[in-house]
């Protein structure tokens, strides 16, 4: 395998977050700044974000929109970031939002943080909880925090957490 920059090589999506770790204000700003400086088609910057710190009102409103099985581990994350987009061309806006979240994830790795993105949540419920206007479409919830103890997870999740990660071999991804 070709070498990757450590910022990419060390990124992965844990379910074990340290329940005592908090996200400092400057860390949160740095994550959102990374997202803000992502490229976008026509520099449209169609992304919008909501940030909740553990146990604050926004965090609780985001958490309840997640599937019950995910809430169980996501509640240990230090912060939850909702990634939403605006704009007429939803496909283009979703692509741009994905890049912004990817930038956020790389910045998180640089800060010693981990991110687990989730698209399994009640979009209409979250939009209502956050009182979003109709043109703002929430697409992803990113759980952000510091690594916790995988042994504290239920057995099934622990196995996933400690198992090998897989990717398709590169040659199978090349169209020609
Ligand atoms: C857009 C997106 C949506 C995801 N949604 C979920 C989800 O709903 N639940 C979940 O447990 N993981 C979710 N994940 C995490 C992926 O399962 C994970 O990134 C993938 O298995 C690769 O693992 P890695 O991030 O550790 O490399 C999501 C990731 C992305 C990028």
UniProtKB/TrEMBL annotation:
<dbReference type="InterPro" id="IPR000415">
    <property type="entry name" value="Nitroreductase-like"/>
</dbReference>
<dbReference type="GO" id="GO:0016491">
    <property type="term" value="F:oxidoreductase activity"/>
</dbReference>
<feature type="domain" description="Nitroreductase">
    <location>
        <begin position="9"/>
        <end position="146"/>
    </location>
</feature>
<keyword id="KW-0560">Oxidoreductase</keyword>
<protein>
    <submittedName>
        <fullName>Nitroreductase</fullName>
    </submittedName>
</protein>
<dbReference type="Pfam" id="PF00881">
    <property type="entry name" value="Nitroreductase"/>
</dbReference>
<comment type="similarity">
    <text>Belongs to the nitroreductase family.</text>
</comment>
<dbReference type="InterPro" id="IPR029479">
    <property type="entry name" value="Nitroreductase"/>
</dbReference>
């Amino acid at each position: 395998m070709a070498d990757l920059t450590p910022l990419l090589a060390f990124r992965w999506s844990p379910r074990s977050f340290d329940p005592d770790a908090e996200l400092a204000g400057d860390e949160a700003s740095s994550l959102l700044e990374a997202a803000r400086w992502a490229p976008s088609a026509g520099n449209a910057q169609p992304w919008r974000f909501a940030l909740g710190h553990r146990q604050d009102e926004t965090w609780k409103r985001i958490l309840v929109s997640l599937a019950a099985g995910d809430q169980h581990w996501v509640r240990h994350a230090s912060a939850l970031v909702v990634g939403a987009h605006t704009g007429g061309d939803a496909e283009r806006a979703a692509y741009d939002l994905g890049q912004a979240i990817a930038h956020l994830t790389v910045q998180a790795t640089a800060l010693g943080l981990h991110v687990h993105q989730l698209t399994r949540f009640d979009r209409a419920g979250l939009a209502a909880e956050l009182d979003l206007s109709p043109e703002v479409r929430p697409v992803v919830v990113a759980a952000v925090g510091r690594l916790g103890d995988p042994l504290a997870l239920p057995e099934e999740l622990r196995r996933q957490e400690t198992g090998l990660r897989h990717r398709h071999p590169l040659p199978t991804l090349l169209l020609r």
